[in-house]
Specification:
Blueprint: H1 2-23, E1 24-33, E2 36-45, E3 52-58, H2 66-77, E4 81-85, H3 97-108, H4 111-127, E5 131-141, H5 143-153, E6 160-164, E7 182-188, H6 196-208, E8 213-218, H7 242-260
Parallel strand pairs: 3-4, 3-5, 5-6, 6-7, 7-8
Antiparallel strand pairs: 1-2, 2-4
Helix pairs in contact: 4-5
Length: 261
């Protein structure tokens, strides 16, 4: 009996890493907006039962790449259903700053279309049978951080959003903002792409419309501080910062705990 028990225990322990890894599942989610094709990425933990909060993930200006998908998988490992939305179109991913800038500017030049693409991703997330549609949030990186703020300005049904090193767009004067979504801004204190004046205007704009916000600054952190590949893009002012990455992720988890529990 002892031998059999020991052998079975050995099999369980040997197989445990595989079982743990297999819990998080991911799949491509193709969809269309008008005549254009898009492909998001959905991640979830298949060991969990019942509906759970859904998190929309909006990529950096590089497009829906491996990094954005990995963040969706990390969220799935925390017990959420995460959809990494495609904001540019199927296959539009680059490592060249010039091309990324071109795609981002083209997308943001029309706020209605920009917001519409993000809302389509949120709609796909809401309709997933594993998701509790009353408990939704969004996170975004860089360009994605600006996008989640547009969702707030556009009245999306979100409990809250997290912007990681986002560009912090100001709401348009024509927008009538009525949203109870809470906002967490994770910003590098050494980020050269935003002036202190712009940050103050952004905070004032949120105060003016009564949005519940908080901003955390990370000393020494530049732009793209959460992305381990940031140093490889050759973009001056963008650099990975491990401590700020870990701290901001922990701040996000605490923020979600406040939203959903």
């Amino acid at each position: 009996m002892n031998f059999r028990f020991g052998f079975l225990l050995f099999l369980v322990l040997v197989g445990l890493p595989t079982l743990v890894e297999a819990r998080v599942q991911g799949k491509a989610v193709p969809y269309t907006i008008g005549q254009s094709s898009y492909e998001g990425f959905l991640a979830w933990d298949d060991s969990l039962e019942g509906k759970r909060p859904g998190i929309l993930v909006v990529h950096e200006w590089w497009g829906l790449n491996t990094y954005a998908r990995s963040r969706a998988e990390q969220l799935a490992a925390l017990g959420y259903v995460a959809l990494a939305v495609d904001m540019y179109g199927k296959g539009k991913v680059t490592t060249h700053p010039e091309k990324a800038s071109e795609w981002a500017k083209l997308t943001t030049s029309n706020v209605d279309e920009w917001l519409g693409r993000a809302q389509e991703g949120l709609k796909l997330l809401r309709e997933d049978p594993k998701v509790d549609p009353s408990r939704l949030a969004a996170i975004g990186y860089c360009f994605g951080g600006a996008t989640v703020m547009q969702l707030v300005y556009g009245g999306a049904p979100l409990k809250g959003v997290v912007s990681f090193h986002g560009s912090l767009p100001l709401p348009q004067s024509s927008q009538s903002i009525h949203n109870s979504a809470k906002v967490l801004i994770a910003h590098g204190d050494a980020d050269p792409f935003l002036t202190s004046d712009h940050i103050e205007q952004f905070k004032t704009a949120l105060d003016t419309v009564g949005i519940d916000w908080q901003m955390v600054l990370y000393s020494g952190a530049q732009h793209s501080f959460t992305n381990p590949s940031a140093d490889q893009y050759g973009l001056k002012g963008a650099k990975y910062h491990q401590q700020a990455d870990q701290r901001s992720w922990n701040h996000m988890k605490q923020f979600f705990k406040e939203l959903f529990e």
